[in-house]
Automatic annotation (TrEMBL):
PANTHER family: ABC TRANSMEMBRANE TYPE-1 DOMAIN-CONTAINING PROTEIN-RELATED, METHYLTRANSFERASE. CDD domains: AdoMet_MTases. This is S-adenosyl-L-methionine-dependent methyltransferase. InterPro entries: SAM-dependent_MTases_sf. One of its GO terms (molecular function) is methyltransferase activity.
Length: 418
């Protein structure tokens, strides 16, 4: 029996019925309710098939990226390539000076690998990954949650985040939608929290002229950019994200630019390994990148599935050609939301400026004193804490001998678009 003052329930206790509770009159079709719920859940996992590729049902028809095994494999190779590129940094998972994050959000989590790695690295933190399609994972750490959600909708998470991460989100949103996403990030970060984003370019480059001007790869970026512009969701995120992040109110903005090789042609061992992985991403991912955009928004008219497949086959052959010393540019931006003290100070300055502007102008001429313009200097970048390196990077002594610079790589001349 239940003891008075206790919440413990014994096995022989009965559950009392609330007399004010009204039962549903007539026969309720609970099977229909279950069926509708099951159909909705299963449709999210099944996705929508188009031209032999599977796409998400949430915001159906709006995002170019497939949601199938081939695309996820490409994303995985690209993610590993990024880790290699930053393998000599104190922490390859991110560059922001985040010491002990407790609530982290990964937007566009894809397969969820970054979120899972973060959960392993920070076991006391809660890592949340969101995407339009359920991440295909069988297991994740207890402090990692992967969800299907649309970040364009109002965010309903109860707690603020101290770190928000995004990677390879080009073409995911329109310009106005990007502004909304960055505002949501700003509003849902704790004061002093960080945002970080990594993006790659579409245009393929070569420093030594090894990529012919009439090659498929030379015009690859132009084709995708033109189609994405017609779709209303441009793929030039690499060139616009810094300005939009600053516009959202973030400060202390830092930038790191990479030459990201495609293929193992680079002499530097870090770039060689990163290039091999990046080549895998391109060979596996090119059809998925092109199929949606070119069959819907191709120039001068939408392409057929067969035309895209022929283009991709020729492009893959050029990627495999060891004579092509090619790469793309990539950029990583990390920035901070002002602290509470900085926000209060800014609010005070704004208030004083407003009051000053409302005062009538002084009619007595004021002598003009000579002024001097001092040199401007940028504040030093805050030091980043050292974290453990992911285990799959620890076993490569060859990588430990190389170096990657902060800023545009010095291994090669200035990039020339081909």
């Amino acid at each position: 029996m239940k003891r008075e003052g206790s919440s413990t329930v014994e096995a022989d206790d009965s559950i009392l019925v609330d007399p004010s509770f009204q039962a549903i009159k007539g026969k309720a079709n609970y099977d229909d309710i279950h069926s509708e719920t099951y159909s909705l859940a299963s449709s999210i996992y099944r996705g929508v098939m188009e031209n032999g590729r599977r796409y998400q049902t949430m915001r159906e028809g709006e995002y170019w990226g497939p949601a199938d095994d081939q695309h996820f494999e490409a994303l995985e190779a690209g993610y590993l390539s990024q880790l290699v590129m930053d393998s000599e940094s104190p922490n390859a998972l991110f560059q922001s000076p985040v010491e002990n994050p407790q609530n982290v959000l990964d937007i566009g989590t894809g397969r969820g690998t970054w979120a899972i790695d973060m959960a392993d690295m920070f076991p006391s933190a809660m890592i949340r990954g969101v995407d339009l399609f359920p991440p295909p994972v069988d297991w994740m750490p207890p402090n990692c949650v992967l969800e299907v959600d649309d970040v364009l909708q109002e965010w309903t998470w109860r707690e603020s985040f101290d770190f928000i991460h995004m990677s390879i989100m080009l073409g995911a949103f329109s310009t106005d939608e990007w502004e909304r996403v960055y505002k949501q990030c700003y509003d849902n970060l704790t004061p002093g929290g960080w945002i970080e984003q990594f993006e790659g370019a579409c245009h393929i480059m070569s420093d030594d002229g090894s990529l012919p001007e009439d090659s498929i790869l030379a015009s690859w970026g132009d084709n995708l950019i033109a189609a994405s512009n017609k779709s209303g969701r441009p793929m030039g995120t690499l060139d616009t994200m810094r300005e939009q992040i600053e516009k959202a109110g973030f400060i202390d903005v830092h930038e790191k630019v990479y030459k990201w090789p495609i293929g193992g042609w680079a002499k530097d061992p870090v770039l060689k390994e990163a290039g091999r992985l990046n080549s895998t991403m391109w060979k596996s991912g090119m059809e998925g990148w092109a199929m949606y955009l070119l069959t819907r928004y191709g120039t001068p008219k939408p392409w057929s599935k067969q035309e895209v497949q022929v283009l991709v086959a020729k492009a893959r052959a050029e990627v495999k050609n060891p004579a092509h010393h090619i790469y793309i540019l990539a950029r990583r931006i990390w920035a901070r939301k002002p602290t509470s003290e900085e926000l209060a100070k800014e609010s005070k300055v704004t208030s004083e400026s407003t009051q000053s502007a409302q005062q009538p102008p002084h009619r007595t001429p004021t002598p003009v004193a000579e002024s001097s313009i001092g040199s401007k200097s940028r504040s030093p970048s805050p030091e980043r804490p050292t974290h453990a390196t992911p285990p799959y990077l620890e076993s490569s002594p060859e990588l430990e001998k190389s170096s990657v610079t902060d800023g545009t790589s010095t291994r090669g001349s200035s990039p020339q678009k081909t």
